Amino acid sequence: MLFNIQTVAMYLCCVAIWGTSYYTYNTFQAPYSSTELALLLRLGGALALFSLTTRQSRPLTLRDHACLAAFGLCNFTLAYWLLYMASERVASALVVIIFSCKSIFTPLLLSIFLRRPLQRHILIRGLIGIVRVALIVMPNTSAPVATASVVFTLLGTLLAAFGDVMSTRNHTAGITPNQANRWGVFYAMLGAAVLLSATQRTLTLPTVPTYWTSVLWLAFAASFVAWNFYLRLVKRIGPERTNTIVLLLPVGSVLVSITFEGYVLTPRAILGIALVVCGNSLALLKDAARMRAKASLPRDPCIEGAVSMTKL
To answer: How far apart are CA 76 and CA 202, in angstroms?
Structure first.
């Protein structure tokens, strides 16, 4: 049975954990340390956990390591760094909503770098994405948005999408997801260390207990548990159903921002959120129909790799 209690629990855990990640950083870490230090600690904890649970599946070539480094640096180091900085300046809900444009950027980059065909519905999704982001981030008196934060979020989203291109290549090369995660996080941690050394002359570790609690939460729950749950969901209910998590992330983040960050919904923002749901729903329906049509054909590892590595 596809949808049992355990499956539903894993699904809801992914939504809850990833929907609060940027709020957790912004509230419990940003006031006490630099963005670079918080990122380095999170990645270090995640690497320790992945190393304990991952076995080498095959020897890696230099080209494999280059692609794994690109995957880790884009998806984990640079994307998180930019999104963290954006969440310090605006409500975390806005960061997550704009980040949902990753569902547009990923297929576009796949068509450019891996020559995958670009479907017409991708262009429609892109137009809806542009409109929804404009509606949500346009300055208003109740939720002012810094232009720099919007740029940071869009750039971070673009880098994460390029990381998906690298993950697709790694998957087709026979690198398992767990192996890719371990090496990707390893290179990401090295990148975070370089960022820290370049931006901070002295290293001072915070002593606030809630800071270290949040580090453990982001390393264990957001970077390790939720990601493993996501992979299990892909295996149990298929990538098209698992990807509906994207639909709920902005909704959950908005609820968190309204409750804890004083974010006030305006009619324009409500319309933008509605377009988020409509745009992602269109994409998911098209993807589900396409996969049903190909159900009798051999599975395409490129599609599976692109979907399985789509995360926050």
So the answer is: 24
Question: How many residues belong to the chain?
Answer: 312
Among 24-38, 59-73, 128-142, 216-230, which is the least confidently predicted range?
Answer: 128-142
Secondary structure of residue 150 in the 3-state scheme: helix
Contact 27, 91 (CB under 8 A): no
Backbone angles phi, psi at 89, to 5 degrees: -110, -20
Instruction: Tell me the per-residue pLDDT of 244-260, one tens digit each, with 9 for 90 and over.
Output: 676 677 777 777 877 78
- Report the chain's terminal Cα–Cα distance, integer Å: 28
* Cβ atoms of residues 250 and 93 within 8 Å: yes
* Among candidate residues 18, 72, 62, the one with its CA nearest the CA of residue 249: 18
Q: What is the C-alpha to C-alpha distance for residues 22 and 94, in angstroms, rounded to an integer?
A: 10
Contact 166, 310 (CB under 8 A): no
Listed residue (80, 310, 46) closest to 182, CA to CA: 46
Q: How confident is the model at residue 53 (pLDDT cuts 50, 70, 90)?
A: confident
pLDDT in tens, 165-204: 888 888 888 888 788 888 999 999 999 999 999 987 678 8
**Would you kindly state where each structural domain of the chain is located, as residue ranges?**
5-308
Q: At what angle do helices 92-99 and 79-87 cross, to 10 degrees?
A: 140
Q: Which residues of 273-302 are buried (b: 16+ CB within 10 A; e: fewer)?
A: bebbbebbeebbebbbeebeeeeeeeeeee
Angle (nearest 5°) at CA 11 between 9 and 16: 90
Closest listed residue to residue 270, CA positions, set 259, 285, 258: 258
In sequence order, the 6+-apart residues with CB closer than 8 A to the CB of 37 are: 196, 200, 203, 205
R_g of the chain, CA atoms, integer Å: 19
Q: How many CA atoms lie within 13 A of 54 on its CB side?
A: 23
The token duo for 29 is 């870490």
